[in-house]
Amino acid sequence: MPETNPPVINFYSTTGEHGCFSNFSRHSVFLKGKRWPTSEHYFQAQKFAGTEHEEAVRACKTPALAANVGRSRKLPLRRDWESVKDQIMLEIVRAKFAQHEDLKATLLGTGDAKLVEHTENDSYWGDGGDGSGKNRLGQILMRVRDELRAAETNRPPG
Question: What is the CATH number of domain 8-154?
Fold first, then answer.
Protein backbone atom coordinates (compact mmCIF):
# COMPACT_ATOMS: atom_id res chain seq x y z
CA MET A 1 0.00 0.00 0.00
CA PRO A 2 1.31 3.47 -0.78
CA GLU A 3 2.17 5.58 2.25
CA THR A 4 -0.30 8.41 2.74
CA ASN A 5 0.64 11.71 4.23
CA PRO A 6 -1.45 12.87 7.17
CA PRO A 7 -3.84 15.73 6.42
CA VAL A 8 -2.63 19.25 7.12
CA ILE A 9 -4.61 21.68 9.24
CA ASN A 10 -3.58 25.29 8.75
CA PHE A 11 -4.47 27.79 11.45
CA TYR A 12 -3.67 31.43 12.17
CA SER A 13 -6.86 33.41 12.76
CA THR A 14 -8.76 33.05 16.04
CA THR A 15 -11.93 32.30 14.07
CA GLY A 16 -13.05 29.00 12.62
CA GLU A 17 -12.89 25.44 13.85
CA HIS A 18 -9.21 25.62 14.84
CA GLY A 19 -9.07 29.24 15.99
CA CYS A 20 -8.31 28.05 19.51
CA PHE A 21 -4.84 27.00 18.31
CA SER A 22 -3.93 30.68 18.00
CA ASN A 23 -2.26 32.24 21.03
CA PHE A 24 -4.62 35.18 20.48
CA SER A 25 -7.71 33.03 21.17
CA ARG A 26 -9.68 34.38 24.12
CA HIS A 27 -9.08 31.49 26.51
CA SER A 28 -7.61 32.46 29.86
CA VAL A 29 -4.98 30.30 31.50
CA PHE A 30 -3.99 30.00 35.15
CA LEU A 31 -0.20 29.70 35.46
CA LYS A 32 2.49 30.90 37.88
CA GLY A 33 -0.23 31.70 40.43
CA LYS A 34 -2.03 34.15 38.12
CA ARG A 35 -4.79 34.21 35.54
CA TRP A 36 -3.58 35.27 32.08
CA PRO A 37 -6.19 36.57 29.60
CA THR A 38 -4.63 34.60 26.70
CA SER A 39 -1.63 32.40 26.07
CA GLU A 40 -0.14 35.32 24.10
CA HIS A 41 -0.25 37.48 27.24
CA TYR A 42 1.67 34.85 29.19
CA PHE A 43 4.21 34.18 26.46
CA GLN A 44 5.01 37.85 25.86
CA ALA A 45 5.13 38.63 29.60
CA GLN A 46 7.74 35.94 30.18
CA LYS A 47 10.18 38.01 28.12
CA PHE A 48 10.25 40.26 31.21
CA ALA A 49 9.75 37.65 33.97
CA GLY A 50 10.36 39.04 37.43
CA THR A 51 10.13 42.69 36.35
CA GLU A 52 7.28 45.22 36.47
CA HIS A 53 6.93 44.78 32.70
CA GLU A 54 5.68 41.20 33.21
CA GLU A 55 2.59 42.47 35.04
CA ALA A 56 2.13 45.34 32.56
CA VAL A 57 1.87 42.81 29.72
CA ARG A 58 -0.58 40.66 31.71
CA ALA A 59 -2.77 43.75 32.17
CA CYS A 60 -2.94 44.55 28.44
CA LYS A 61 -6.54 44.73 27.19
CA THR A 62 -5.97 42.57 24.10
CA PRO A 63 -3.52 39.89 22.96
CA ALA A 64 -2.41 42.20 20.12
CA LEU A 65 -1.42 44.86 22.64
CA ALA A 66 0.41 42.25 24.73
CA ALA A 67 2.27 41.14 21.59
CA ASN A 68 3.19 44.73 20.70
CA VAL A 69 4.58 45.39 24.19
CA GLY A 70 6.42 42.07 24.18
CA ARG A 71 7.96 42.74 20.78
CA SER A 72 9.03 46.27 21.70
CA ARG A 73 12.76 46.41 22.10
CA LYS A 74 12.42 49.52 24.26
CA LEU A 75 12.01 47.15 27.20
CA PRO A 76 14.89 44.99 28.49
CA LEU A 77 14.46 41.44 27.17
CA ARG A 78 15.61 38.74 29.58
CA ARG A 79 19.09 37.54 28.68
CA ASP A 80 18.19 33.87 28.30
CA TRP A 81 15.11 34.46 26.11
CA GLU A 82 16.34 32.69 22.98
CA SER A 83 17.21 29.57 24.98
CA VAL A 84 13.94 29.43 26.97
CA LYS A 85 11.25 30.66 24.55
CA ASP A 86 10.36 27.22 23.15
CA GLN A 87 10.01 25.77 26.68
CA ILE A 88 7.82 28.73 27.71
CA MET A 89 5.61 28.24 24.65
CA LEU A 90 5.30 24.52 25.46
CA GLU A 91 4.41 25.37 29.08
CA ILE A 92 1.60 27.78 28.15
CA VAL A 93 0.19 25.62 25.33
CA ARG A 94 0.21 22.59 27.64
CA ALA A 95 -1.63 24.56 30.37
CA LYS A 96 -4.18 26.04 27.95
CA PHE A 97 -5.25 22.69 26.52
CA ALA A 98 -5.24 20.97 29.93
CA GLN A 99 -7.44 23.69 31.48
CA HIS A 100 -10.11 23.85 28.76
CA GLU A 101 -11.90 20.56 28.04
CA ASP A 102 -13.44 21.92 24.81
CA LEU A 103 -10.03 22.96 23.46
CA LYS A 104 -8.54 19.63 24.48
CA ALA A 105 -11.33 17.86 22.54
CA THR A 106 -10.66 20.05 19.48
CA LEU A 107 -6.92 19.31 19.61
CA LEU A 108 -7.43 15.57 20.10
CA GLY A 109 -10.01 15.66 17.31
CA THR A 110 -7.29 16.57 14.81
CA GLY A 111 -6.11 12.96 14.87
CA ASP A 112 -2.71 12.67 13.22
CA ALA A 113 -3.06 15.80 11.10
CA LYS A 114 -0.03 18.02 10.72
CA LEU A 115 -0.81 21.33 12.46
CA VAL A 116 0.65 24.38 10.75
CA GLU A 117 0.56 28.00 11.81
CA HIS A 118 0.18 29.31 8.27
CA THR A 119 1.37 32.91 8.05
CA GLU A 120 3.80 35.07 6.14
CA ASN A 121 4.28 37.08 9.33
CA ASP A 122 6.34 34.48 11.17
CA SER A 123 8.92 31.98 9.99
CA TYR A 124 9.86 30.76 13.47
CA TRP A 125 6.53 29.96 15.16
CA GLY A 126 4.77 29.74 11.79
CA ASP A 127 5.48 28.36 8.32
CA GLY A 128 6.53 31.67 6.77
CA GLY A 129 3.51 31.45 4.46
CA ASP A 130 5.27 29.17 1.99
CA GLY A 131 6.23 26.24 4.19
CA SER A 132 9.83 27.37 4.62
CA GLY A 133 9.34 28.39 8.26
CA LYS A 134 10.06 26.26 11.32
CA ASN A 135 6.37 26.00 12.41
CA ARG A 136 7.43 25.68 16.05
CA LEU A 137 3.92 26.49 17.35
CA GLY A 138 2.44 23.74 15.18
CA GLN A 139 5.11 21.31 16.41
CA ILE A 140 4.39 22.21 20.03
CA LEU A 141 0.64 21.73 19.50
CA MET A 142 1.30 18.28 18.00
CA ARG A 143 3.54 17.40 20.98
CA VAL A 144 0.84 18.49 23.45
CA ARG A 145 -1.72 16.50 21.44
CA ASP A 146 0.48 13.40 21.76
CA GLU A 147 0.88 14.00 25.52
CA LEU A 148 -2.87 14.45 26.01
CA ARG A 149 -3.61 11.33 23.97
CA ALA A 150 -1.12 9.32 26.04
CA ALA A 151 -2.66 10.61 29.28
CA GLU A 152 -6.17 9.63 28.07
CA THR A 153 -4.93 6.14 27.14
CA ASN A 154 -3.24 5.60 30.49
CA ARG A 155 -6.15 6.85 32.61
CA PRO A 156 -7.96 4.17 34.59
CA PRO A 157 -11.54 3.65 33.40
CA GLY A 158 -14.16 5.35 35.45
Answer: 1.10.357.40
